[in-house]
Amino acid sequence: MSIVKKLASQTAIYGLSTMVGRFINYLLVPLYTAYLSNVSDYGVVSVMFGYASLFSVVFALGLETAFFNFAQKTEKPERVFSTATHTLIITGFIWVILSRFFADSIMNAAGYPEHPEYAIWFTLILATDAITALGYAWLRNQQKPWQFATIRLSNIGINVLANIFFLIGCPYLSKHGYTWADSWAQPENMVSNIFISNLIASLLTFPMMYKSWRNLIYGIDLTLLKQMLKYAYPLIFIGLAGMINETFDRVLLKQLLPENTGDYEVSIYSAFYKLSLILTLFVQAFRFAVEPFFFQQAKSLDSKQTYAYVMKWFVYAVSIIYLFTIVILPYIAPLLIRNKAYFNHPSGMKIVPILLAANLCLGIYYTLSVWYKVSGKTKIGALPAFAGAFITLALNYILIPKIGFLGSAYTTLIAYATMVVFGYILCQKYFPIPYPLLPILGSIFIAIGSGYFILSIENTMLSICAKILSIAILIGGIYFYEKFIYVSPIHNENNNQN
Q1: Average pLDDT over residues 374-387
Q2: Do 323 and 378 touch, CB atoms closer than 8 A?
Q3: What number is the average pLDDT over the span 9-17?
Q4: Using CA atoms, how far apart are residues 49 and 32, in angstroms rounded to an integer?
Q5: Domain assignment of residue 115, yes or no
Q6: Residue 496 lies in a domain
Q7: Buried b / exposed e along 248-283 (16+ C-beta atoms within 10 A)
Q8: How many domains does the structure of the chain reveal?
């Protein structure tokens, strides 16, 4: 249990920046849905950030995970950090130069030819974020979660304040006679203000990491760089496949639906996707804490038992969060989505439990992926992500024209579930980890089954009783298993040594 407590404490601190910070960021959704003049405008935002998520993998070159791997194998992690960071500074500069020359072509392909400036802005955002991601990685590797949290919260705070200034402050000032605010308000193109806010936040975050940048005096070790790139290049393809699974459905919705409805459908889909925020935020916070933890545990003799132990408790947590989100869904939906026009779409609320289950599977896949990262089998580890990407592309192309974004939701769930099963099979073949399947599968089935049962009840009193009973069964089942059935292999080994 001490392992879980240590990991939980770090997850809680990272969660201060990730869960709380991202929750603040999620509050931008009510801002966008309230102040963007057209529902379809939020679709433009979602599509552009969908492209950005995909290209962020290319900009990062897989060097964040490579840093964790090589930092554990050397007494000079500073040299590893310096090599990776210098590389991203050089490649980022090249990307920025290219974006200035090909901005028109890029935005024409994206579907927004009237805004070539978006290409330049997003290239600057992605280049800067790729470099600062290594700064965050350095803090995580040095186990400095509070510094991590401070900088991350500052980044999010700047973004939120900039959005409020551009979307609310400038129009207000312009309306009350402050002519200098006229050019900033841009009432005809509020979407641009959202992108500029993100650019400001990214650029201002860079100097906050000045302590990490001190390590850049070590320069580039070309021999080390070759080893890191050899390790990392499969991760680029894994990351691309992962981002296709996570965000490319927005892009496909715009491309595959009629031009006059594409941005509108993406807007509805993206807004209701945000309702899975509690589960998504927990998974993201856990990832920040668990990746360096797993690499550190790789040297331990009982590392595989530790990985299994962590997975079990992670599944317990996400199962409870899944069910809790279903319980409070009727109350948080109108708080997050402020424009009632979004609720007029008949498929809006239907996708939430599907996407919640999909994100639960995604969290399990992330935790499961430890096997190929610590064993160095990144090429084999890429196969589940490729399978998920293939399913995402194929099923979206089939289902979107028929049932719209409901098809994207089902596709996401099928893709992530397939990745979990495929990843587990490869794990047991190449790096066997003794995952306790009974409590893991039991928690998942109880949570998802109870969730769909709750949503099927229309009577208010019966619904309340079903919610209370479902949570009691899930938590009670976990307690019973841990108290009377499960015996930790790590605990037994420690007792034998004593």
Answers
A1: 83
A2: no
A3: 59
A4: 14
A5: yes
A6: no
A7: bbbbbbbbbbeeeebbbbbbbbbbbbbbbbbbbbbb
A8: 1
